[in-house]
Amino acid sequence: MISFTVRMKFRSEDRERVADLLTTLARESRQEPGCVSYNPHIVDGEADTVVIYEQYKDQKAVEAHRASAHFKDHVVGGLYQMMLERQVENLASIA
Length: 95
Fold this sequence. Notes:
Order of helices and strands: EHEEHHE
Number of helices: 3
Helix content: 40-55%
CATH class: Alpha Beta
Radius of gyration: 13 Å
Number of domains: 1
Strand content: 35-45%
């Protein structure tokens, strides 16, 4: 299992567009065969910061996600164009 978080910061004026993109992206990503979990969140007290918790069954599933049309459209062509900062944290399960 591969798990990680992606933390991104956006401008306040992009908040509605970011939420729309993430809603669509989550719905489409959750339907990928190798996606176990795809959960975007707004950080409490930081309305312009998003954290996405993602889990995939293996590296092949991660690569399929990143190669998908919805990733290219909503992430590369959308979120990446608006984000101010991005940080990825790879997670290792302990239980």
